[in-house]
Amino acid sequence: MEGFWDIVLSKEVRAWGDTPSPAVAWLASHLPAPATVLVPGCGYGRNALGLARLGYRVVATDTSQAGLARARSAFADPAIEYLEQDAFGACGPVDAILAHYFLHLFLAAERSRLLTVWREALRPGGFIVLTALSTRCAFFGQGRELESGTWSNPGWIPIHFETPSALAAALEEQGFEAVHAEERLEPETKPTGQVDTASVYALARKRPMFEGAPR
Ligand SMILES: C[S@@+](CC[C@H](N)C(=O)[O-])C[C@H]1O[C@@H](n2cnc3c(N)ncnc32)[C@H](O)[C@@H]1O
């Protein structure tokens, strides 16, 4: 997948435009700055820079060297640390996590591992904002269903499509209190123009105590 992202992230036209996702403002409406926010899968840094401009300290990680090179040159800010780091590695502690259009790139076992890593990285009570493509999205159900809700999505990479209740349930299972989950239209500036993409937004908090899923 890394070669794939290097190609996407080094194209002259930026894949998702220059402006941050509305997910940045959504997190900011729940978390007073300053606070430290982890942005896994930061790409070329548009959301990291959006957070820094609102007064947060940001640790933004990605495995794509092309994405990070662009982030460090065009989306830099003294409050942002860009790190070449796999999202499955240990990280933190941080006050909040913003993972925009990231979790849906992985299969069920990996999504569950990521939620565990993020729970461990968060301070108690810390917020997590997750966004994902929705089952209402125009390209839901294309190609082969690799596992429940995850489609091969020919021409791109496999995507797991979410509903608000499924994403909230996945968070609850991993020791988060799901505060809110909803369908949203994500405004995206793609090389082909402006589109609104059906998405799911979820906001949750780390529970102070979590003893694992019941057996
Ligand atoms: C759909 S892009 C989202 C980019 C960014 N969140 C945004 O909205 O602008 C997914 C990003 O995840 C990164 N990525 C994929 N697998 C990763 C991994 N295991 N650890 C860290 N980053 C990864 C890719 O390099 C890519 O930048």
Task: Tell me what the structure shows.
Strands 3-2-1-4-5-10-9 form a seven-stranded mixed β-sheet. Strands 6-7-8 form a three-stranded antiparallel β-sheet, with no helix packed on it. The chain has a single domain (2-203), classed as Vaccinia Virus protein VP39 (Rossmann fold, 3-Layer(aba) Sandwich), CATH 3.40.50.150. The chain starts with a helix and ends in a 9-residue tail after the last strand. It is built from six helices and ten strands. With 215 residues, it is an alpha/beta fold. Helix 1 (2-10) runs parallel beside helix 4. 40% of the residues are buried. Helix 5 (108-121) links the parallel strand 4 (94-99) and strand 5. Bound molecules: S-adenosylmethionine.
Fill in the keyword field for this structure.
215 residues, alpha/beta, Rossmann fold, 3-stranded antiparallel sheet, 10 strands, binds S-adenosylmethionine
What is the strand and helix layout of this fold?
Blueprint: H1 2-10, H2 22-28, E1 36-40, H3 46-53, E2 57-62, H4 65-74, E3 80-84, E4 94-99, H5 108-121, E5 122-133, E6 145-147, E7 150-151, E8 159-160, H6 164-173, E9 176-190, E10 193-206
Parallel strand pairs: 1-2, 1-4, 2-3, 4-5
Antiparallel strand pairs: 5-10, 6-7, 7-8, 9-10
Helix pairs in contact: 1-4
Residues 1, 5, 9, 16, 21, 40-43, 46-47, 61-64, 67, 86-88, 100-102, 105 line the site of S-adenosylmethionine (SAM).
